[in-house]
Design goal:
Layout: H1 2-16, H2 21-33, H3 37-50, H4 55-67
Length: about 70
């Protein structure tokens, strides 16, 4: 479906542009929407690391932490 297509797109995107915080955040968000929280965490953390002011990345990481009971 659409989430699988989006995941493929963002994985290709971050391979090409590995320093783009929003690409990592978006991939994390797609994985979160699929319920794949453990898989999403490294992408959310990378997004925060690349841009500390990326509010969406912080939010996505927080969602993962909540679902993991952290």
């Amino acid at each position: 479906g659409k989430l699988t297509e989006a995941e493929d797109y963002y994985r290709r995107f971050i391979d090409i542009v590995p320093y783009h915080s929003q690409g990592f955040s978006n991939l994390g968000g797609v994985l979160i929407n699929q319920g794949r929280f453990d898989e999403a965490l490294p992408f959310c953390e990378k997004a925060v690391m690349l841009a500390l002011d990326n509010v969406e990345a912080h939010n996505n990481r927080g969602i993962v932490y909540v679902h993991r009971g952290q």
